[in-house]
């Protein structure tokens, strides 16, 4: 059964510590706001391109956040992240990446390469990206976990059309993590996927929480409702994130950003009061 308890994190940060939730498989606590790297971290060697990303990474760990999600699919993101992480950051980081290829040998090569790029002998989480060659890659991941080369394993997808596939996988496989799309506008995961993850004791990472920006188009030019203050929220983004973390099956939400101001706003969504069931519906209606 997934943990339903939100706890205060230990990392000090302006506005209070980040809320945390336990990974069901181990009880390890993770801050409920993580960092995605798809898009913003896909840059080259230019100092100008990497400077704002360095600010984001520094601000992320300074706030007590931990989980950074990346993938070989995201062009240079793994290499850029590996370059930006300092030794103190690595002590606290929860590094999640993916395997995205066909065949056992190709999967092993790719995962080894991820470790080299991220500069770590053991990754915290490796996920089968978009379920590609699932059975082959899961077999390798299980062996790696037994050998201590990875701490947790899981699967991912990013579209509603793939939710049925994820459900079938969770029904037959014991996995530590599952990652999928979920937002106040796209709530399909609430029907079966989120309850099943809770039943199976599988941690949930939420991607595309802002619908690739479409969420904000719904409220462009509008101020957040006055009752947002009751939830310690000062922006639409924080309301959306609070809606997500209030679901008891959600472990961590991973919005991607390359701007420090956006990161700071996102982190605010993981602090303070959390909406109850009625307030969650109020948030969903405000966006709809």
Give a brief description.
By secondary structure, the protein is an alpha/beta fold.
Please describe the structure with a list of short key phrases separated by commas or semicolons.
eight-stranded parallel β-sheet, alpha/beta, single chain, 11 strands, 288 residues, TIM Barrel, three-stranded antiparallel β-sheet, 11 helices, 39% helix
Folded structure, characterized:
- The chain has one domain (about 20-285): NADP-dependent oxidoreductase domain (TIM Barrel, Alpha-Beta Barrel), CATH 3.20.20.
- The protein has helices spanning about 45-60, 75-85, 85-90, 105-120, 135-145, 165-170, 195-200, 215, 235-245, 260-270, 275-285; strands at about 5-10, 20, 30, 35, 65-70, 95-100, 125-130, 150-155, 175-180, 205, 250-255.
- The chain has about 290 residues and is α/β, with parallel strands linked by helices.
- It starts with 6 loop residues before the first strand and ends with a helix.
- The protein has 11 helices and 11 strands.
- The protein has an 8-stranded parallel beta sheet. A 3-stranded antiparallel beta sheet has the order 1-2-3, with no helix packed on it.
Number of helices: 11
Strand tally? 11
Mean pLDDT: 95
Low-confidence region ranges:
8-14
Report the CATH topology name: TIM Barrel
The CATH class name reads Alpha Beta
State the separation between the terminal residues, measured CA to CA.
31 Å
- Give the helix level as a range of percent: 25-40%
CATH homologous superfamily designation = NADP-dependent oxidoreductase domain
Element string (H = helix, E = strand): EEEEHEHHEHEHEHEHEHHEHH
Largest sheet, strands/sense/barrel: 8 strands, parallel
Identify the CATH architecture: Alpha-Beta Barrel
The number of domains? 1
Strand content: 15-25%
Helix-strand category: alpha/beta
- Give Rg in angstroms: 18 Å
Overall 3D form: globular
The largest beta-sheet arranges its strands as: 4-5-6-7-8-9-10-11
């Amino acid at each position: 059964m997934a943990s339903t308890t939100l706890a205060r994190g230990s990392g000090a940060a302006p506005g209070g510590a980040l809320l945390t939730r336990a990974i069901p498989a181990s009880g390890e606590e993770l801050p409920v706001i993580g960092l995605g790297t798809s898009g913003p971290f896909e840059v080259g060697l230019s100092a100008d391109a990497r400077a704002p990303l360095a600010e984001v990474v520094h601000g992320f760990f300074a706030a007590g956040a931990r989980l950074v999600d990346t993938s070989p699919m995201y062009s240079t993101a793994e290499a850029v992240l590996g370059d930006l992480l300092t030794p103190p950051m690595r002590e606290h980081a929860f590094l999640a990446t993916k395997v995205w290829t066909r065949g056992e040998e190709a999967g092993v090569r790719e995962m080894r390469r991820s470790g080299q790029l991220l500069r770590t002998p053991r990754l915290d989480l490796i996920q089968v990206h978009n379920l590609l060659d699932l059975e082959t890659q899961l077999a390798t991941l299980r062996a790696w976990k037994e050998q201590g080369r990875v701490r947790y394993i899981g699967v991912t997808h990013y579209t509603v059309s793939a939710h049925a596939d994820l459900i079938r996988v969770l029904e037959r496989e014991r996995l530590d993590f599952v990652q999928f799309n979920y937002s106040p506008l796209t709530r399909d995961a609430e029907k079966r996927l989120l309850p099943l993850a809770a039943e199976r004791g599988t941690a949930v990472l939420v991607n595309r929480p802002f619908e690739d920006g479409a969420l904000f188009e719904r409220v462009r030019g509008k101020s957040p409702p006055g009752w947002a203050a009751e939830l310690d929220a000062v922006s639409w983004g924080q309301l959306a994130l609070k809606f997500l973390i209030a679901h008891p099956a959600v472990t961590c939400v991973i919005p991607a950003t390359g701007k420090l101001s956006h990161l700071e706003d996102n982190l605010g969504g993981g602090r303070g009061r959390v909406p109850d069931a009625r307030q969650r519906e109020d948030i969903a209606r405000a966006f709809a």
